[in-house]
Amino acid sequence: MAVDGRAGMDTVFARLYPGVEYKGGKIDVRVKEERSGGDSNTGSTPVRRKRGPASRVKVEQRQVSSPRMYSVPVRSSREDEDVDDPDYVSPPKALKPPKVEPKTEDSSTLPTPRIDRVHKCLVCGGQGKANKEGRNLNMGEGMQDLKYHYAVCYYNEGAFMDLVDPGQENKTIGGEALELFGLRFKYKCPFVTCSRNTGRGAGKMMGYKEYSIHCGVAHHLLEKVMARDKREGLDEVRAAIILDRKREGISWEEMPEVQVEEVQTCLLCNGETKEGKNLSFAGEKLLQLRYHYASCYYESGVYLAKYPPGEQNMDQEGQPRDVLGRDIKYSCEVTGCTIKRKMGYKEFCIHMSNEHRGLLDILREDGRPGLSNIADRLEEED
Fold first, then answer.
1. Which of 76, 170, 196, 364 is 20 to 30 A removed from 329 (C-alpha atoms)?
2. Model pTM above 0.70
3. What is the DSSP string of 102-120?
4. Distance between CA 355 and CA 281 in Å, rounded?
């Protein structure tokens, strides 16, 4: 270090070896005994040292023959750090990469909305006698009504078509939804924490139109649609919608994968009962559909020929006398069937049709439109 000419080395040297002068290859050591008011012979400022044996040690001058590399001690913790040392530089701390959130809207370019400003819808213009709400939209207290109205207007213009996927089965070649009102295809909101999936509204399914408007209002697709609309004044409306969302602490999220299932109304009873509506081939609902059709066919009398009740349980007109099994019961004799108990005639017929594929034959033998297709779907899912 004594011969190292790099910048700052003299400062480090002075701190490590107090009392030693840095003279380019030669080291002069001057150790002064502390005297009250004493001056050194050289006229330099005396070096203060504590009293004790160490202060009387004589250090002789020596010649440095060759330069050596010394490692500067590294302070390993804050306890070893000399906070009063002006020359000590703490090692740099590892910096964490900044968290970058996906950019969903450029709020800096949006105008400041005039809260509680009443205006006409900038899409439909509030036209029509029945369109009173379209002429009294409020960007303050009426924000929910405002969002719903604009979502309906944009749906009517087809603005959600490329943002809300109708699913492969409910899509034309051009990408448009085939069935809009939930008569054949129903949608579940794909956001797990949505009110449609929690509390009293849990599990409520929607048609494509209702689903699109719901996603526009509740899941902020309306903001995305408005960002593409260049009509004058819509920037202010969009700014008010974004401000309202941020006040509630809600972040904008991308749409998850669509959750859609095909449903139908019973082709036999035409949905006269609640069980005959919204029949579905999805998951466990397939079992409900199959059981419903097996039950519906009982009233038609088709089972009399397929599963005769027997002479002891038949009246003069060929109808079963004991339907519920009060006196006469039947057992399932199909190998491997888990139902071992005895049943009444009606339950026996439905059981054989539902559990042992009798329904497939009956559906294919029935000439009414659509029933053979149901048999094919049931066989595929079986």
1. 364
2. no
3. PP---GGGSPPP-TT-EE-
4. 16
